[in-house]
Amino acid sequence: VAVTAPMARLHLPSLPTLLCCSAASLLLLLRWQWRRRLWKKVKEVQLKHERGVAQMEKIWLGFRKKVGAIISTVGGCKGGEAPTPPRLIAVRAGCISPVGFTGSPQALQITRETNCITEYMWESETKFQQAVRPEKPGLLFGVPVSIKDSINCQGYDSTIGFASNINKPAAEDSVLVQVLKRQGAIPFVKTNVPQSLISYDCNNVIFGQTLNPTLYTRTSGGSSGGEGALIGGGGSILGFGTDLGGSLRLPAAFCGICALKPTGNRLSKTGHGMVAAVGPMAKKVETLALAMRALLCEDMFNLDSTVPPLPFNEEVYSSTKPLRIGYYETDFFTMPSPSMRRAVREMKQLLEDAGHTVGHGNNPLHRDQEWRLQIHESCHKFIAQWKKLNLDVMLCPVLGPALPVGYPGKLAVATSYTILYNCLDFPAGVVPVTTVTDEDEDEMENYKGHYGDHWDRILAKGFSGSVGLPVAVQCVALPWQEELCLRFMREVEKLAEEKNRIV
Ligand SMILES: CCCCCC/C=C\CCCCCCCC(=O)NCCO
Predict the structure, then answer these.
(1) How much is the pTM?
(2) Of 348, 387, 441, 471, which is least packed with CB atoms within 10 Å of its CB?
(3) What percentage of the chain carries pLDDT values higher than 70?
(4) Which residues cross the membrane (predicted)?
């Protein structure tokens, strides 16, 4: 009796409970199997990625042995051609192979260490070697270009950082890539992005975190963060990314390079995920201009009829007429770091000294909170205000220096300086102009933000310890005036280079 009594109290589960438990177990088993399959795919892609980088390394070392110092001897500008940075001249002259793109022995190491590449395009080397210079070569003949993961390239995955997108290669090239190829460019790598693209960090479950080439504890920015790190580290001359809230401009600013976010439809957006605008990234403004010149062609207009047939306006771009420039140092939402503020202030002075008219700091576009409300209410109101002030272009801050890895996820609000020009759909570019100084760092002691809240405290922490990191300014023009925006960027770049040479 003593033994059977407890047994008698034991309840057997009812049939519905048993069925529920079995169903739950089955679901868990299926989920486990699905995740296992996904992880297997991730591992395969990671191996493929490793093989690609190793192959690049092999080609690059072979190239260096063969070509030696030729790159450093190539420079200047051929008569009749638009002025082009020396390295572009070199590739167009056939002196550089897609992965032998650089004269710096560190570039491939930085490329590897920053983890910026997702896929190496194996056919690019053969294409490059076999390229026969046609009678009328395209404007980008022989130029190796890097492409953000999310921009479709036939035969390659556009993962957007999701494991479920592995082994789903794009059926055809995006219009952008088609036109690049028709202009003679050779896409040679795809570059990393944050999962979903809605972040200005650069991390995903497949390829991991991309680091900033100027300081490995900092993010490269995002979502075109792989491009930022690759170009910033010297691993690519010209790359392409997309922008919805700052995804071209933030990684460029963080990595010390230039980028242009054009008006939404100036370049075709067909064949890219989640995008407000597609644009070029490069170390030099002249390279961005070359890319725009090449892309704004009949092929682009024919392949995508929604793109207005506006060829590159050389007259506007090459004009030296003094500009009427508006400027502001803060948007009264995200308080600029001391270096962001100084970058704008110093550039304002340089522009004035160079003979441009720079609107007073307290113009109504940024005097108080009102202008931001106007923007959200009406883009037309903003344009009318701009016209009333008789401005050609606007000089303003862009977030910087680069934040530590992981910080962008906590600070979406800090996109305020860039996202504004997506809301307005104005062309906006960034140009690196300075680096964080000891004095900037000392001033961070007093940084409280505009609100002194949780976000401001995180931002203050993120900005600190940044001496030596690049800081950029943002250059903005009215819709469809990419050439004017680039012309302004070129001026800013020239003045910054002159100043930094003297300092
Ligand atoms: C007054 C400004 C308020 C800012 C509020 C910001 C809210 C959300 C921002 C999300 C972060 C976006 C990062 C940019 C990512 C991007 O541009 N991705 C698209 C790529 O095509």
Answers:
(1) 0.88
(2) 387
(3) 85
(4) none
